[in-house]
Amino acid sequence: MGLTGLDIFKLTPRKNCKECGFPTCMAFAMKVASGAVEIEKCPYISDEAKAKLSEATAPPMKTIKIGAGDNEKALGGETVLFRHEKTFVNRPLFAVQFDDQMADDELARKADNIKKVDYERIGEQMHAELVAVKYTGNKDRYLEIVKQLKDLNKTFVLVCDDAAVAADAVALVKETKPVLVGANADNLEDMVKLAKDNGIVLGLSAAGIEDLYALTEKAQGLDYKELVLNTTGENIAKTFEKTIEVRRTALEGKDRTFGYPSIVFVNELAKGDAYMQTALAATFILKYGSIIVLEDIEYANALPLFALRQNIYTDPQKPMRVEPKVYEFANPDAESPVLLTVDFALTYFVVSGEIERAKVPAYLAVPDAGGLSVLTSWAAGKLGASVIRDMIKNSGLEEKLTRKRLVLPGKVAVLKGDVEEELPGWEIIVGPEEAMQIPKFLRELD
Predict the structure, then answer these.
(1) Which DSSP string do the residues of 328-359 spell out, in sequence order?
(2) Beta bridge partners of 93
(3) For residue 159, what are the contacts with CB-CB under 8 A and spacing of at least 6?
(4) Dist CA 229 CA 217 (whole Å)
(5) Which fold, 63-312?
(6) Cα angle, residue 395 at apex, residues 390 and 400 outer, rounded to 5°
(7) Domain spanning 5-57: which superfamily?
(8) How would you classify the pairing of strands 326-329 and 362-365?
(9) Residue 186 gets which letter from DSSP?
(10) Theoretical Cys-Cys bridge with 99: which of 106, 134, 182, 251, CB 3.0 to 4.6 Å?
(11) At what angle do helices 139-149 and 163-173 cross, to 10 degrees?
(12) 196-225: buried (b, 16+ CB within 10 Å) or exposed (e) per residue?
């Protein structure tokens, strides 16, 4: 059972120094107990108390780090089953699988697809973060493929249950901090030793939920807790049940034996059906895959999956925002118009995309509107004439422009008169209501 706020308060230095950001140690302790803040925020807590509190207040699901450098990612660390209860923490990662039976042309095609599907959506880069390489018996070919794929600069998921072969593969990519998936009841000790020696995450595989639980207990008994659980079952239904049961046991049952991220091989479940693979990948984004392994990746399956993942793993209480400032398009000059929009990321990227499509030199002024949409920010009082005035005055545009034209979003045309009063000398123009009308509007703007 977790510690109460009073339990935590008794272990704090009780200085009420406020350096943690809270007015009293009691207030801080209550926030720690609720999981809203880490105990390390207290600069004066003793190491002994920190160790005790960190263990007691740690999430029931362990946070696991994989990859190295810019490719380092966190998995797990979740505290709730449903997004409406609290924001999900670490988004699932996608892997594309290769194996030692694959011909060079097929390998090259998949590798090219991984390189090709790499794009930005609402300020986030969308791409497959991992490559999985499965060993099926041809050691030389397996190691050769691992070597070839190093050029992709991705984190590896080495799928191999032969400890000797796995050791050779790990040696090739040890510096990338790969995941090694293939530990089972027969090879557990050798695989744990290999993972320990190389400081990598170990994936455990067992047929049923009870067997997986027992295997995880044994791995923990060998003093290793950097684990990922392979919840892939013999069919879709059993995989779905197994993956949910692992997560529910950890979070609702507070059983840390199952408190680890999961890996789901949806490519194996789909059995070559590309549509089924996409449907299953979407399912396990929601319920509850931490690593989702695909047979291949193309825009047709990447676009919906990445969009779904981004939507589900974005904090609904924290608007997605861009930096408030003036953005330039097509090398604008002193005669170019200034368009106005808000700092809500989705609005910004839709509007900026249409300005780029117009290929007309223009400025885009983005004030601080609280990360809300145009109408919402206006209704909330965050996008008014004074806000627009301050944005323009502080941006330096008045000194830069010889022709001062400001284009308001059509949906807040009501602001035109007020903005004209706040910005004398500016021509205030009401723009289109829909972003898709921007290119035609700009081309026809005198």
Answers:
(1) EES---TT--EEE--SBHHHHHHHHHHHHHHT
(2) 291
(3) 97, 132, 133, 134, 135, 181, 182, 203
(4) 12
(5) TIM Barrel (3.20.20)
(6) 125
(7) Electron transport complex subunit B, putative Fe-S cluster (1.10.15.40)
(8) antiparallel
(9) T
(10) 134
(11) 20
(12) eebebbbbbbbeebeebbebbebbeeeebe
Q: Give CA–CA dist 5/57, Å, rounded.
A: 11
37, 67, 88, 127, 317 from 124: Cα distances, Å? 26, 19, 17, 10, 18
Q: Quick one: which of 382, 437, 381, 430 has its CA closest to 409?
A: 430
Number of residues written out for the chain: 446
Count Cβ atoms below 10 Å from residue 393 Cβ, excluding itself.
12
What global pTM score does this model have? 0.79
Where along the chain do the CATH 3.20.20.20 domains lie? 63-312
pLDDT per residue rounded down to tens, the chain (446 residues):
456 778 888 888 888 998 888 999 998 888 887 766 777 788 888 887 777 776 666 678 999 999 999 999 999 999 899 988 888 989 999 999 999 999 999 999 999 999 999 998 877 899 999 999 999 999 999 999 999 999 999 999 999 999 999 999 999 999 999 999 999 999 999 999 999 999 999 999 999 999 999 999 999 999 999 999 999 999 999 999 999 999 999 999 989 999 999 999 999 999 999 999 999 999 999 999 999 999 999 999 999 999 999 989 987 777 788 899 999 999 999 999 999 999 998 899 999 999 999 999 999 999 999 989 999 999 999 999 999 999 999 999 999 999 999 999 999 999 999 999 999 999 999 999 999 999 999 999 97
Rounded to whole angstroms, the Cα distance separating 226 from 219 reads 9
Specify the domain boundaries for CATH 1.10.15.40 within the chain. Answer: 5-57
Domain with CATH 3.40.50.11600 in the chain: 326-444
Q: Are strands 338-340 and 73-76 parallel, antiparallel or unpaired?
A: unpaired
Give φ, ψ of 35 to 5 degrees: 85, 10
Strand, coil or helix: what is 24? coil
d(CA 290, CA 280): 13
Crossing angle of helices 274-286/236-251, nearest 10°? 10
Q: Which CATH class is domain 326-444?
A: alpha beta
37: left (phi over 0), alpha (psi -120 to 50) or beta: beta
Q: Which amino acid is at 260?
A: Y
